[in-house]
Amino acid sequence: MNQNQSLHRDQMVRKTSYAIVLIALGAALSPFTSFPLGIARVNPTQHFLNVLLSTLLGLRWSAGGATLMALIRNLLGTGTLLAFPGGIFGALLSGLLYRLTGRYVLAALGEVIGTSIAGTLVSALWVAPSFLGKTPGLLALGASFFASSLLGALTAFIVLGTLSRASLLPHLNWTGRDGSH
Q1: Which terminal residue of the chain has fewer beta carbons within 10 Å of its beta carbon, N or C?
Q2: What is the pTM of this model?
Q3: 10 located within any domain
Q4: Per-residue pLDDT of the chain (181 residues; tens, 9 = 90+)
């Protein structure tokens, strides 16, 4: 194995370790941070961790982490099927905006927009009718998703900004502006 392969392997082990810790944190906190809000059961911690995964590990890790956290929340009974579109679309847009700009604020904004718009539409039109028997009001579902994602994304932005100012993030950030991994 050459030096490049060794560095890549070590980097993947570290990334996987960080992802496992963040996903486990989401699972462990889920029973305590998940609550009914409007017509959805929300979890701002999911959105907080989505932004951390986007900024620290990258787009694919964020989308994968959101999917795993939604699955674990459903298995634990602290989430519903709405956790899938409610988390994944925000994670995707968060990761994409961070990859393109390298700015925490846009990663946080992407989480809110992706969850509030795409997550709401997919939930209302595809997921919710299948288990509620009818399409819920977009405004009611959107308000729940917006509040949850805003709280989580704002928390992530504050934490990332604080860690960045304290120079505690550069050694963790593998994604960079160019989206390299």
Answers
A1: N
A2: 0.86
A3: no
A4: 787 887 788 889 999 999 999 999 999 998 899 888 877 788 999 999 999 999 999 999 999 999 999 999 899 888 888 889 989 999 999 999 999 999 999 999 999 999 999 998 888 877 655 544 555 567 778 888 999 999 999 999 999 999 988 888 755 545 444 344 3
Burial class (CB in 10 A: 0-12, 13-18, 19+), 106: buried
72-102 burial code (b ≥16 CB/10 A, e <16): bbeeeebbbbbbbbbbbbbbbbbbbbbbeeb
Residue ranges making up the domain that contains 107: 40-165
| Residue 105 resides in a domain | yes
170 found inside a domain: no
Which residue type sits at 49?
L
